[in-house]
Specification:
single chain, alpha/beta, eight-stranded mixed β-sheet, 16 strands, binds aspartic acid, binds magnesium ion
């Protein structure tokens, strides 16, 4: 069997759903498990509702917009008397019940935000069936088992695998299920972290021993840079797992960072293909040797540079670094780049305002702390002379670091 994954953009409106159904139907020669995300920007919209519930504000206007958005899609795809219209509204209206339950903030988030994937997959499955190509809707929460770490559920691989052993592909069956969501042992919905549907596809593939995973995207494959930023970007025909994993680490958003590991461990190739032109070859990520890769350029926006300066004439030492790392670890903040000098330690992190302000406050007990926001971290992997010079010499470089293969510069956007 193989696993397909379709993201929000591939089901963002009625024509996109039609296209997704056509791709599914064109691949019915092998058993298929299809993982689908929430439609378009639904997850962001549901996050706004969660925030309103937590702030005890009215959210009916926002909820109505989400209902209208899905209704406009089902209106185009189905007859007026099809059961799907009511089904979607009733799933979305369940938010009103959830909002009164005694959940923790993150637990509430997962119960509400997961509904985006539920309604999306109900629509896609109903539409594939409507076109006469049978498929079965699966509730991914029955199979993806996690701990109770809401918003970042940690997968319980053993129990997930056990649960999946009940899935039978006899007769070339096709299943449609949700990305991004799972369930705790006591029955509450969890999510796996934003953009986690790729990871879901990898979990199903690894547990079910799939022959491959295909992620369908709006780009022709994995490219050596974001084509919106560098129009001359090229598509890789193939990439080693290791190279792809490192790309995601540096911030390439084409694949979720957690996706590669389970696939590489199980030796399952990952294909990245274009949903607008299924005849394009795309990129094959697998165990392979590629002689010379072109420079790979990753832009990571919304970065913050924090500098901790010692307050007297001591130098930065292990004890002081210990304080900084402890504060980072307590807030689960990941460093993207770091550098030290005699009297200061500087590091670059994603700017998530709440967390960063807490971090700065805690560091201020020990250091003089400065920070700059609105920066972009540019990573050039496998650089050549030309790219090396170009990115180092651009305007606004605040911090720079290079090894034999990788250059990183932090610049004012
Ligand atoms: N819908 C979720 C999100 O937007 C998961 C995903 O798209 O992968 O984060
Ligand atoms: Mg998404």
């Amino acid at each position: 069997m193989r696993v397909f994954k379709f993201g929000g953009a591939s089901v963002k409106n009625a024509p996109a759903v039609v296209n997704t159904a056509s791709i599914i139907n064109a691949h019915k020669d092998e058993p298929l498990l299809v993982v689908v995300s929430a439609m378009g920007k639904t997850t962001n919209a549901l996050e706004v509702i969660v925030q309103s519930i937590l702030n005890k504000q009215d959210y009916q206007h926002e909820l109505q917009q989400i209902k209208d958005y899905h209704r406009s899609i089902t209106d185009t795809l189905f007859d007026a008397n099809h059961a799907i219209h009511k089904e979607i509204i009733s799933v979305l209206d369940s938010i009103n019940n959830l909002s009164n339950k005694p959940f923790s903030d993150d637990q509430l988030y997962d119960q509400v935000v997961s509904l985006g994937e539920i309604v999306s997959t109900l629509i896609v499955a109903a539409y594939v069936n409507h076109r006469g190509n049978g498929c079965t809707w699966l509730d991914a929460r029955e199979f993806i088992r996690t701990d109770a770490n809401y918003r970042e559920g940690k997968v319980d691989w053993e129990n997930s695998k056990k649960a999946m052993s009940s899935i039978s592909f006899e007769g070339n069956r096709c299943f449609v299920t949700q990305g991004f969501i799972g369930r705790t042992s006591d029955g509450f919905t969890t999510t796996l972290g934003r953009e986690g549907s790729d990871f879901t596809a990898a979990i199903f593939a690894a547990c079910l021993k799939a022959t491959s995973v295909t992620i369908w995207k709006d780009v022709p494959g994995v490219m050596n840079a974001d084509p919106k930023r560098l129009p001359a970007a090229i598509v890789f025909d193939e990439l080693p797992f290791k190279e792809a994993a490192e790309m995601t680490y540096y911030g390439a958003s084409v694949i979720h960072p957690k996706t590669i590991k389970p696939l590489a461990n199980a030796g399952i190739p990952l294909l990245v293909k274009n949903f607008d032109n299924i005849n394009l070859p795309g990129t094959r990520i697998h165990e392979c040797k590629v002689d010379e890769l072109p420079p790979l350029i990753v832009f990571k926006d919304n970065q913050c540079l924090i500098s901790c300066k010692v307050v007297d004439y001591t130098f930065i030492d292990e004890a002081q670094l210990g304080i900084i790392f402890k504060a980072l670890s307590e807030l689960s903040i990941k460093i993207n780049l770091m550098q030290n000098s005699a009297i200061s330690f500087s590091f670059c992190v994603d700017f998530r305002e709440n967390k960063i302000l807490k971090l700065v406050e805690s560091l201020q007990h020990h250091f003089e702390v400065y920070y700059n926001t609105g920066l972009t971290l540019i990573t050039v992997k496998n650089y050549d002379e030309k790219t090396f010079d170009f990115y180092r010499k651009q305007k606004g470089v605040m911090l720079e670091q290079s090894s034999r293969s990788t250059l990183q510069v932090l610049v004012k956007a």
